Amino acid sequence: MYRILKGKEVADSMLEETRVIVEQMERKPHLAIVLVGNDPASEVYVKKKLQKAETVGIRTTMKRMDENTSEEDVLKIVEQLNDDSDVDGFIVQAPLPKQIDFTKIVEMIKPEKDVDGWTSANMGRMFVGLPALMPATPLGVMKMLEYYEIELNGKNVTVIGRSNVVGKPLALMLLKKNATVTVCHSRTKNLSVHTKNADVVVAAVGKPGLVTANMIKEGAYVIDVGTTRVDGKIKGDVLFEEVIKKANCSPVPGGAGPMTVAVLISNVVMAAQMTAGK
Description:
The chain has 10 helices and 10 strands.
């Protein structure tokens, strides 16, 4: 009765659109990824990003650095990539080892090459409505809502999570679509009061099983952005098996995750086009 909101289906559609654009470009865009350390999850994510980029015709480079690399050495790599005119966009894969200040690293990335959309410059431009490279995960959620023709105009949307990379930018994107947005977080009292009233719920806190069926309105739309590794398996913030019986819901894995990669790759093409003045 209720729809499974499959992010992979939307992501594949986006990647095909990107492939067609890249095919028509005289110079193929170039993505670089900096991977510091040997975090197993990061290894998987980076491999996936590089593979998907290559399937649409984007050139790729990976800069691998040791777990004990100093912050200064990472900053040097960032400066090199900033100055490399052949690299259209790059990311420094999170998380970073404890001796490195991630915010400091991100802020050193040139905004026009910031294909993760995490610099304060891109966030600020997005806030005032200027062209910007937007954060991949929240924009991926918006693309999913658009693909499944989920009406936002005048609707109540509850976002669970207030991070700088998902919750806050997503709330802004939803406001621009004329949704009435409630942002919940770890200090929110009676969370279910806010979720039960929502036409759309987006969970992005990294707490497995936080959202249960009795917290959701019948027929609502639920997007699960949470990804937490539990006993070797990836778990979402939503109890999918429960909620899908009562509302439309995205699974984990296979929901918002593929969208993040698809939007990142789309951002690389946009960065190349912006550099070329298009």
